[in-house]
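Encode chain A's predicted structure.
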Amino acid sequence: MSKWLKQFLFGIWGLLLIPLIASMPKQWLEENVFSDPGGTATTVFRNAAATTVFDNLLALGQQRWFRFALVFWTGIVLGVSLEWLNRKSDEKKASEFRSLGVKFRSLSDSLKIRTPSSGWPDNLDDLKPAITSVLSSARKFHLWAPDQHVYQLPDASFLCEYFRCVGKLLEDGQFDKANREALSWQPFLDNVTLS
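Encoded structure for chain A:
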């Protein structure tokens, strides 16, 4: 929704609120401004004119059609606000998923470089904090992620391929496929660690 249309909707809604809150400024003016009959404010602003304006606003606020219009516009404003918040939330979540995908792919590349060398998993001391962090982020987004059993595997190929496959889907914005892909790795890890 365009910015000017949103401002227009909120502007109309704000105007509709004026008759509902007119009693508060009227009371304040009567107590503070018009209470002194010889004061400057009383001569500049006629008490009768102000009273007439506020009385008309209050009467307008009591009209049945006006109340319907206020409820109708309140619904529109709430709907627009909720839709905007939902879109912002989805955009933020998509950005976080893509960022996680980039981290997955980066770790996959780092693991691929180290795979030929011996010493798994001892050769990962510098990568373990990053691996733990991205796996915990994946769990936060309700993606299946391997636990500490992955370090009992004979090499890093499982973790490397998991990061590559799931990370690619996350980067591409295919979040449902990434979730299914992540879940498809769970039985393999369960079978391997049991043997």
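The mean pLDDT is 80.
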